[in-house]
Design brief:
The chain is an alpha/beta fold. 46% of the residues lie in helices and 9% in strands.
Length: 296
Amino acid sequence: MQFDDDADLGTSEVRDVRGSRIPGGRATVGAGIVGLIALILGLFFGVRPEQLGLSSDDSDPAATASSQAQVNEACRRGSDADTREDCRTVAVVSSVQDYWRAEFPRREGRYSDARTVMFTGRVSTARGAATAAVGPFYCPGDGQVYLDLGFFADLRTEFGADSGPFAEAYVVAHEYGHHVQDLMGTLRRAQDGQRGADSNAVRVELQADCYAGVWARHATTTPDERTGRPLLTTLTRQDIEDGLDAAAAVGDGRIQEKFQGRITPEAWTHGSAAQRRQWFHNGFRTGDMAQCDTFR
């Protein structure tokens, strides 16, 4: 996975609030067993972090401004994305949105940008406070993607994914798949409260995987709005395998077997490892979002 070294990244599509926590609030959750327990409760039983007393909306505006200034300074060129994780996130967000901004008009639609918020530990959203324990997520209330970069380390250490740089890109592209669903009106199908292998919740997640694959198919040919050249210049077969592996690593069945010792499809919310691999690959193979109809 290689970016155009001379590309002007621009950071307007990413808001960095890392380090904005202040002491004295309620307990926060990051990596470790407490965070994993909260993640499992959220995935399988619908328990929100604030219900566990694990979230807070405390923030430090000065720290947020400092963090944003640092990422603005550090992430200037595509070459920075090849060496820094936060800059790689900035570049992937730009590439993903470049694609969807071009694709929506071709389908007589209008794409609205979504900002990615990079945070540490906990963050405040339009739907309330959330912690890193819930993993990366999209909030339809404010139309933003939320990402604690520590999740990428968890992907490797806790979920066993061969997490190369493109595995991280897959995670970002998947969350923007939810933004696409939000704009198209399909995201609300997951709000019926149903769970299980055939539920709308699973179908929504698998479609987001497929949309991530569609972007990947076009990533090296979609021109960047600032330069007219693709921001992502090289994507190898191994990169795609890393993305497939990351998709499989967070399949419901694999997570259940690891943390509860048995597989219970009736509690699924995201789909099996095989399904997640299949739909990401389907999007990448066809490059056509029309082939991502998981509800059919």
